[in-house]
Amino acid sequence: MFGMTLATHTIIGGIAASFFPTHPEIGFVAAFASHFALDAIPHFDYPLRAYEFDNKNAMNSDIVLDKRFARDLINIGLDILVGLLASTYILMFLGKLSLPILIAGALGGIIPDALQLVYMKFRHEPLKSLQRFHIWIQRDHRLESKPFIGIISQIAIIVIITAIAMLV
């Protein structure tokens, strides 16, 4: 659950949105789509203490809103902050820094994971279908037992996408 790190989703979302410099709403959609493309790649996610996985049916997994979740929020906040700082630097380096685009890309890149939490507390459509898709796109793409490889792969993805953005 909650695939890739949010920093990676924020950075790639910002780069995806930067291709639409005068249309933050299209940038948001591109960043939203980039989230699922990234989740389809083998990756590492850090564990959330408050996440309770249902082995029989992943759609029944839940987040418990208790002290563990409060601690998870600190990690999530730091993860997003790192992503925003790195996105700002990369977009400045690419000469494509625009606050509306940065915000659209960051939000579009991380909203799918936030919607998983909303689904766990409000299990109705269209969240059900989105959660089913999110679980499906990530199946067999996690490297929990290989965090070093997972983190290196995320850095490699950021470098490759940044290089592609430089060429375009």
Structure characterization notes:
- By secondary structure, this protein is mainly alpha-helical.
- It has helices at residues 6-18, 24-39, 67-94, 99-121, 127-138, 147-167, and strands at 51-52, 62-63.
- Strands 1-2 form a two-stranded antiparallel ribbon.
- α1 packs across α2 (24-39) and α1 (6-18) packs across α4 (99-121).
- The protein is globular and about 45 Å long.
- The relative contact order is 0.22.
- The mean pLDDT is 90.
Q: Briefly, what is this?
A:
This protein has six helices and two strands; from the N terminus they run ααββαααα. The chain has 168 residues and is mainly α.
Structural class: mainly alpha
Give a short account of the largest sheet: 2 strands, antiparallel
Oligomer: single chain
Helix content: 55-70%
Separate helix tally: 6
The run of helices and strands is HHEEHHHH
What does the overall shape look like?
globular
The order of strands across the largest sheet is 1-2
Rg is: 16 Å
* Mean model confidence by pLDDT: 90
Contiguous low-pLDDT stretches (5 residues minimum) are none
Amino-to-carboxy terminus distance: 33 Å
Strand content: under 5%
How many E strands?
A: 2
Topology:
Elements lengths: L5 H13 L5 H16 L11 E2 L9 E2 L3 H28 L4 H23 L5 H12 L8 H21 L1
Antiparallel strand pairs: 1-2
What would the keywords be for this entry?
globular; mainly alpha; 6 helices; 168 residues; single chain
